[in-house]
């Protein structure tokens, strides 16, 4: 038995929940894709293909829902979830109005609206606990530009309390080699509303790699098990690169996660145990979501999948048998 590295984000959104409405629309919106390598000046063109979603359960569609790819699930069928169907909110005769099966271009579309998974997808819970020796009481609230401060872990690690004000996450610059690289942050909770912004900074002038972006991983620890440990308001994420691999938010708990999109809301959220809501009319999320359940609230709430994620962020897949023999030796 072996577990191989697989893309962490093969889908624009995947829900690990197995029940009815594991992915649920209350308003219609597109699921499409883009290529962040073509981003320029903080903008990028999206294409009406390769917007695939999946769950271990059911997806409930709404009028104006447009999935440009297809839907994957261990379940099958179109109709009522109570009857065990994988897709509800449509009928076999109308499903093509909602799920387009366009995989390589907006004009090259098929009729494979659903892909049956051989088994439920098992996702490892992210490790978001504080580094050894760091306790919640030692954390400090962030203010302004936040740099990794060691905090009992590797030098490229920073630990902070509740983030509820405008701040910028910095990459790590090695004081000896001057090489700029990614950084990892441990945050208690995130609440960004009322015009507050969460942004990432490129490597600073004078460092090796100046001007380039590096992966920033934000681990939300939620020591007190709050009801909503992550609440990100509209326009609060500012990732000018539009490469979601540069802002990775991880959460292991089961509290509510609420996010609003925006013109530069490019990030990935890895919260396989949490219910997640994408709120707001015409709210755009650039990247991908790995969640327990997903609600898309508001007409036009959309997810734009970055096709580069299939090759840049990996995790361990399900256990499989690679070789087998009846030999005793």
| Proportion in β-strands | 35-45%
Number of helices: 1
Stretches where pLDDT falls below 50 for ≥5 residues? Answer: 324-329
Q: Class by helix and strand content?
A: mainly beta
- Tell me how many strands there are: 29
Q: For the record, give the distance between the C-alpha atoms at the N and C termini, rounded to a whole number.
A: 17 Å
Sheet bearing the most strands, described? 19 strands, parallel
Task: Kindly state the percentage of residues in helix.
Answer: under 10%
Topology:
Blueprint: E1 2-7, E2 13-15, E3 23-25, E4 30-34, E5 53-55, E6 59-60, E7 66-67, E8 71-73, E9 87-88, E10 102-105, E11 108-109, E12 114-116, E13 144-146, E14 157-160, E15 167-169, E16 172-173, E17 180-181, E18 183-187, E19 190-192, E20 198-200, E21 216-220, E22 230-232, E23 237-238, E24 247-251, E25 257-260, E26 266-279, E27 284-296, E28 302-306, H1 309-312, E29 314-320
């Amino acid at each position: 038995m072996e577990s191989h590295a697989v893309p962490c984000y093969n889908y624009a959104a995947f829900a690990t929940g197995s029940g009815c409405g594991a992915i649920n629309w209350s308003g219609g919106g597109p699921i499409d894709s883009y290529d962040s390598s073509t981003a320029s000046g903080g903008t990028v063109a999206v294409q009406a293909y390769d917007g695939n979603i999946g769950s271990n359960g059911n997806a409930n569609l709404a009028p104006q829902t447009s999935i440009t790819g297809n839907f994957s699930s261990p379940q099958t069928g179109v109709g009522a979830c109570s009857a065990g169907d994988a897709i509800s909110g449509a009928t076999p005769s109308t499903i093509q109005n909602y799920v387009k099966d366009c995989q390589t271009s907006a004009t090259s579309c098929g009729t494979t609206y659903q892909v049956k998974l051989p088994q439920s997808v098992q996702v490892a819970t992210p490790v978001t606990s504080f580094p050894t020796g760091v306790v919640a009481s030692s954390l400090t609230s962030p203010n302004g530009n936040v740099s990794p401060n060691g905090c009992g872990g590797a030098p490229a690690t920073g630990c902070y309390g509740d983030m509820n004000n405008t701040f910028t996450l910095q990459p790590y610059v090695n004081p000896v080699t001057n090489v700029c690289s990614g950084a990892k942050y441990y945050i208690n909770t995130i609440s960004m509303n009322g015009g507050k912004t969460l942004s990432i900074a490129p490597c600073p002038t004078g460092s090796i790699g100046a001007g380039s972006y590096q992966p920033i991983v934000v681990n939300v620890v939620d020591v007190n098990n709050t009801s909503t440990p992550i609440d990100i308001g509209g326009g609060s994420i500012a990732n000018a690169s539009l490469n979601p691999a540069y802002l990775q938010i991880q959460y292991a708990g089961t509290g509510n996660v609420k996010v609003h999109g925006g013109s530069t809301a490019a990030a990935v959220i890895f919260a396989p145990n949490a219910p997640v809501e994408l709120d707001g009319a015409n709210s755009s999320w650039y990247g991908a979501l790995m969640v327990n359940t997903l609600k898309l609230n508001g007409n036009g709430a959309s997810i734009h999948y970055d096709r580069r994620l299939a090759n840049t962020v990996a995790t361990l897949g399900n256990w499989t048998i690679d070789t087998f023999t009846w030999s005793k030796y």
